[in-house]
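Observation: inputs received (chain + adenosine-5'-triphosphate).
Thought: call the complex predictor directly.
Action: predict_structure
Action Input:
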Amino acid sequence: MNAISVKNLHRNFAALKAVDGISFDVPAGSVCGFVGANGAGKTTTMRILATLDYPDEGEVRICDIDIMDRPDEVRKKLGWMPDDIGNYSNMTVWEYLDFYARALGYKGEERQERLNEVMDFTDLHTLVDRDSDKLSKGMTQRLCLARALLQDPEVLIMDEPAAGLDPKARVELKHLIRLLADEGKTILISSHILSELGEMCDHLLFINSGKIVHHGDSDSLKNHNNKDAGLLYDVQILGDPQSLCDWAATSPYVELIESRKHGGRIKVEGDDKALAARVLANMLRDGLEVTEFHREQRNLEDAFIDMLGSLEEANANPIPPALPNS
Ligand SMILES: Nc1ncnc2c1ncn2[C@@H]1O[C@H](COP(=O)(O)OP(=O)(O)OP(=O)(O)O)[C@@H](O)[C@H]1O
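Observation:
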């Protein structure tokens, strides 16, 4: 069964098509990463799914309930973690969560139990008396997650939960997300940190200019257009790394992807290892003192950037419409 089902969703802001006819399903119990550049349409989509905005067209079902027909029922199934918590001043962590628990209808002992459960899970007990609007980013995200979990939702929608977190807090968040997935919750999570999403998610949904451009597991993205993507090599040289940049700029079949302290990362066109061998020979011939030259795997960032590049190219050179039969 699909916990989230989206069909032909549109959302326009005046002439801007922020969400342009997207369709996708997220199976119950899976973790789906939602990826796209700034302004691609992630937050707009997630806000509609969370019943905070209306689509112009299309259908969304959460746990098989239509969000337009029965939004109140959908809200009982959903936990929403926005990218900005919208905190209140003069409220401790305890008061903040207690306020939301009361709003959700928890009473008496049941409310205390539920508050303790979510605070155990998010490790907030030591912060109960702290002002909720004066927490660090990592603590704030834990509070936001605790709030989203209060009603034990089946579906969790998280907009950029890892943004601004230090590496330790990101690892902790990743661990909590995996625990929630193991409990059988369905999670849709947006992030710019692709390497982390790849590890955490069962599948990834890529959106660009309001359209879904890829949906699959992280390997399917890495292999997408792989043949045309070229082979990547980490090159280390003695001396100034700029000499590798200058060499790459004048060499056919070679593109410098990233300059590094002792050299850089280059892409050699196609998937012909013999060509890569010639490239290495040319480097030595041209006087570069190469100390390392080894093949690197494409990561999700490379795959995503390649995909965006090929989309831009396709938009710049659209296939002309077929001529009518004479
Ligand atoms: N309320 C609004 N009024 C007008 N335009 C909007 C509104 N909300 C979003 N947009 C526009 O819609 C487009 C999609 O925005 P959205 O916030 O969904 O992108 P995003 O993928 O979440 O980006 P980011 O990663 O930067 O958060 C952007 O061009 C944005 O400026």
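Thought: report the result.
Final Answer: The chain has two domains: 2-223, 226-313. The chain has a mean pLDDT of 88.
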